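ingest -> fold -> write
write: protein_1
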Amino acid sequence: MLTVIRVTPDAYASVFPTTSHVYNSVKFSELNRNKAEEVIYLLLNDEKGKPQFGITLGLRENMLLSPFSAPFGGVETVKQRKSVAHWIEAAECVKEYAAVRNFALRIALPPSFYSPTDALDAQSLAFSSTGLTNVPEYNYHFPHNFPDLSSSSRNKLTTAKKQNFDIKITDEVDRAYAVIRENREERGYPLRMTLEQVKETVKVIKADFWLVSLGDEDVAAAQIYHVAPGVVQVIYWGDKRRFSAMRPMNLLAWEVARHYAEKGILVDVGPSSSDGVPSYGLCDFKENIGCVLSPKNVFTFLPAAPDNLSR
């Protein structure tokens, strides 16, 4: 029988000094504390008072969110191997914590390739079994082996290799961010992190910044986080529109895939959908450059009444 206990950040960190991915860490959650009305750390203890599971939730507009400021969150375990019954009980406890307070609940899990065991699959099944609604996102990643390019992408890569591009990993965050910002402005995409926020975040997350340059001009860039053992994630990447015909993004994607594959690291390129509705253009681009599709499960629970009760 599990008991849910709300604890301080320090108490939670003492139980989970390392987490399955960086977005579930106390350091990351505390860095982003101002993006939620409250940050809630919960331990799920057994009948002897020993923690077995934990979850970090951000409260915003009467909804408990895991994550509240990241691509994904989910439940942590003291030991990866848990029975189906234990996982379902943990999922029921999290749901009940929200339900008795009349809070909605949203939990976005990493794709299953983040887990060296079946823990994420078990967690997904447990939330499904407790009646939460799952609307998966279309998520893509580069596999360990070299990507299998479409004929169109091979031609575009050939075009890129004929240019006199210089490509490198750099510690010049400002330069990489400037390219990403211009890319987002040109295409009308949101840029959710300021330069200052990026610099603060990379103090708690290892990051690689890639630059593609042509002479003195930076033409494409990528911001990539080391988020879990054996996995990095593309946070932002893009090029300047006036150079797109020279295909710097095809070169950047190829070199990113090659670099991390040689190190035995998977590259999470992120979702190409919103609320489960795919962007066909993004899906086609990622498939053409050799990415593999996998679901990113997003579970929600809505209380019977919208009124907010005591916490």
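write: protein_2
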Amino acid sequence: MQRTESAPGYVQNPSVLSESTRSAVSWGAVIAGAVIGAALTATLITGGAGLGFLAASPWRNDGASGTTIAVGTVVWLFVTQIVAYGIAGYVAGRLRTKWPDARRDEVYFRDTAHGFLVWALSSVVGLALLGSTAASVVSGTAKAGASMAGAGTAAVAVAAGQAGGGGDNGFSIDYFADALLRRTDPDLTDNQSDVRGEVTRMLGRSLAQGELSDEDQAYLVKLISQRAGVSESEAQARLTQVRKAADEVEVKAREIADEARKAAATFFLWAFASLLLGAFVASFAATFGGRARDL
């Protein structure tokens, strides 16, 4: 005959009697570990930034190279994740509530989950605090990329010229306009500001579109010949030479932009790997802390 709860000799499952309605998560320990992880991460990153500035130098052939600094930055990110979340996970494991009635495998799972929660909470808080800065960086990068793709060297050259204050080291469309309109005899030089703006805009448009229309080219040749006091053949040679130089500047600017894109992609991939390592270290360290807690 089947036994019921009221039948003589029925024994209820002990695990049912000890089942608790409270959560197994010790949020106090998780929050404490997350705070420790965030604080240690900020401390180690600050120290790493100081070491990076000491290693770098504005002087040529002095200080660490760009490759060395990049490798050192990645290594420091991994060290930061290991140290910060190793300590944070262990502390969370030592501070969590003791579960006397849980099975051993269940205790191991809970400790691992507590370590992962420490890493997750610390990362979310850190990203929230740095959200505005990250948004500014991403927005600025996107705008720069769009400008580079759309306007080519025209935008870069103008920006470089403005940043350099119009100095000899700055690339500017104005310089190319001056080169086109420069007279062979300096004594005959007059105020040419009325046409320089027009020439600058035409050169900028040609760089943006990648070519100079036949109408614009014919107009520029006549204008250069008239203003510079040279023959049309020499004016055509000037225009060809200047456009070739501008194209070289554009290619160089795109190469620099492509190198920056590759460097940024490499850095973010390594940063992603370091974050995954931090999650593993926090989870693993929490199991050691929990095991020490139960001794």
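write: annotation protein_2
Confidence is low (pLDDT under 50) at residues 1-17, 148-171.
The two ends are 46 Å apart (CA to CA).
pipeline exit 0
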